[in-house]
Amino acid sequence: MEPFDSERKALEKVLNNSEFADSPVLRNLLIYLVKCYHNNSTPKETAIAIDVFGKDSSFNPAEDTIVRVNTHNLRHKLEHYYKGKGRRDKLQIVIPKGHYAVKFERVRRSPFYVDRTRKTVLTALLFIFAVAMTFILTRTFGSQGPKNNPFSPMSANHFIWGDFINEDKPTLIVLGDFYFLRYFDEETQRGFRIRDILINNETELEKFKQRYPEYKSLQRDTENSFVHKDQVFAYSRILPIFLAHGITPGIRLVSQLPSHELLNNNIVFLGNFKNIGIFKSFFKHSHFAYQLTASTPRANPRDPFKLYSDQKIFYDADDDTTVITYDRIGSVYHSHTDYSIVSKFPGPNNNTIMLFVSFYSAGISQAVDLFSSTEKLAMIKERMQALSQDSTRFFEILFETTGYNRTGLTTTIKHFHPIDPELNFWSLLD
Fold first, then answer.
1. What is the pTM of this model?
2. pLDDT at 300
3. Is residue 254 pLDDT above 60, yes or no?
4. Backbone angles phi, psi at 142, to 5 degrees
5. Strands 266-272 and 171-175, how do they pair?
6. How far apart are CA 69 and CA 56, in angstroms?
7. Which residues of 366-405 are buried (b: 16+ CB within 10 A; e: fewer)?
8. Average pLDDT, stretch 292-319?
9. Nearest-CA neighbor of 53 among 43, 42, 41, 40?
10. What is the residue extent of each domain of the chain?
């Protein structure tokens, strides 16, 4: 690369921007200052006035502010450009205050840098899609009742969904949204909204900050979140079950679920082990436990944004001595296994809570498909009754799904356990 080639390209990017196309005076001033940088000379106010603005040797900077005013305007326009269209430029032109000499500064990205615009827009679109679907399906089928509704023939006393359909309590469908963070980088003086796959709650955030005190300014971003498309499509399969009976459930994000709504509603949660939120406490009482990553995750040297996966499900049998481990295997973009847990259990206020949760797309899509089909639920009921003679009203099931490129192909039941209807789940609020 030729000397100053990077600086020349940085200058061309600025000059080709529409903000500078209509400002010939500022363009000429910037070109002149960059030439001074190239020639290793310090530009003086009088020289700028003569060479750029056509003043003669009688120019008096005490009486004429043309250089200072235009330098101020140029500095402001550069800052505006790099906050907008030039925000991804790695080499930026800077005019320090009180000086005329330009600097070329390489932007050192925070290790957490992401293009937050796309994610913010996608989150909004997915949530709007879910709400719009509720409105459309309600207007189209909500008044037809169960006899004429083409979407779902689930009976009002169905062994899975009857508790939601017949109870007086309203139902909330809760979507898991991912935990986002805010970070202010002292060196670049810029703020970032980021997502770290290993930080999914306050406890994990505090542990990270204790280990890396240089990121002490890291905090939870309560203004932004991200809902994966899997949860929205799962929602589209569950919603017609309720609309078939003239019921329009509410919709919430798990990060915005207040305690009183957990008490006063029946809940259907659709999410991921990473964004399970308050429902993580269910696993204090479960036969199953999950691991998202190894205690000391290793970065992939070919792609530092990926970690070597060590995701597992642990099954603790009733004999208190046997623990079976299931490893999630393979890349989600190729052949892989995924695990999902579907659980229905008594809530803290005589209400009913049902969880659909998995590691990735294949698991939750297959689980929701099974539980939104009367034919498939009939087969599941037979399997549940064969595995246990106890009531099937409350239960937890571990499914193993084989998939390819985030799509589930086959699913089998690995374990089924009934749940005692008298079990106290008030600890969910701990």
1. 0.64
2. 53
3. yes
4. -65, -25
5. parallel
6. 18
7. bbbebbbbeeebeebeeebeebeeeebbbbbbbbbbbbee
8. 66
9. 43
10. 5-106, 122-175+226-429
